[in-house]
Amino acid sequence: MKELRGKVAAVTGAASGLGRAMALAFADEGMDVALADVADLSEVQQVIQGKGVRATSMKVDVSRESDVRKFCDSLEKVHLVCNNAGVAPAGAVWESSVDDWRWILGVNLWGVIHGVRAFAPRLIAQDEGHIVNTASVAGLISPPGSGAYNVTKHAVVTLSESLYHDLRERSSRVGVSVLCPAYVPTGIADSERNRPAGSVPGEFSEQTKAKQAMMRKAVASGRLSAEDVARAVLAAVKEERFYILTHARIKGAIRARMEDILEERPPRNPLGPL
To answer: What is the spatial distance between Cα 84 and Cα 100, in angstroms, rounded to a whole number?
Structure first.
């Protein structure tokens, strides 16, 4: 999809962070943008409309298939789909509550599944379009203290790879990219603000609480901005590039994990010395 002007992008998790940055970047390319989020979208919608393109918005809980279907059906046309909504409650695998697991699986994994199932048939039928699924470097390595998050992001990576193969087997021209950024200053570290009513978080140890604080600090101090990542996504869509690895320094940890698998040895801590 080298020419984006006049086409339509649909972005979930568009109220803030990477979703907001991507929506604005697409608007700068002359695309109309459909915004979805559980949070208020009025500010970003107004900014996009100020760029001289059309912006629509809808409150969407991506963990609900009916919400995602309604969002898809509301669009007369769509060419670029970004399944981006995500949350990141941290904790050791055994400390995360069942509600933690249900919440993060619902948003991070089922949200992408629902997005692909709703939008892919439309793109395939028109034999044009591109799907971007937001994963994370946590989908390529397994940092300690983020078990539930890692599970969802690894699943998004393999879902995206499988989608790519399925489309190529059918000679479809629909493109696929999987976005795997490292630390970017966004609101992802404050996901608790969007926790569903009645959802009970896990009981975390002091060690885990300290790690959560370190994670928030690492996210806040990320050297690449959401806008930098959005530009990388734009470039990947135009180049029809599958893997979007925005942080080159993380490749050493990815390589170490692959070596550990091939050598059949215990995994090294990707946040420690390799």
So the answer is: 19
The Cα 142–Cα 132 span in angstroms is 22
pTM: 0.91
pLDDT of residue 222: 60
Architecture of domain 8-249 in this structure: 3-Layer(aba) Sandwich (3.40)
Domain residues of the chain, as ranges? Answer: 8-249
Q: How many degrees, rounded to 5, is the angle at CA 228 between CA 226 and CA 231?
A: 110
Q: What is the mean pLDDT of the chain?
A: 92
Count of beta carbons in the 10 Å neighbourhood of residue 203? 10
Spatial separation of the C-alpha atoms in residues 186 and 183, rounded to whole Å: 9
Eight-state DSSP code of residue 138: G
CA 180 to CA 137: how far, in whole Å?
A: 5
Catalytic residue check, 164: no
Residue pLDDT, tens place only, 43-74? 999 999 999 999 999 999 999 999 999 999 99
Give me 156's structure tokens: 């998004």
Distance, CA of 140 to chain centre: 14
Rounded distance between C-alpha atoms, residue 92 and residue 148, angstroms: 8
**Sign of the torsion angle spanned by Cα atoms 211, 138, 37, 14:** positive
Can you read off the two tokens belonging to residue 197?
A: 């009513």
The per-residue pLDDT for range 153-165, each reduced to its tens digit, is 999 999 999 999 9
Sign of the CA dihedral running 145, 83, 244, 221 = negative
Catalytic residue, candidates 149, 164, 183, 243? 149
Q: How far apart are CA 29 and CA 60, in angstroms?
A: 25
92 vs 152: CA distance, rounded Å: 15
Cα diameter, the chain: 56
Token pair in block for residue 239: 């180049």
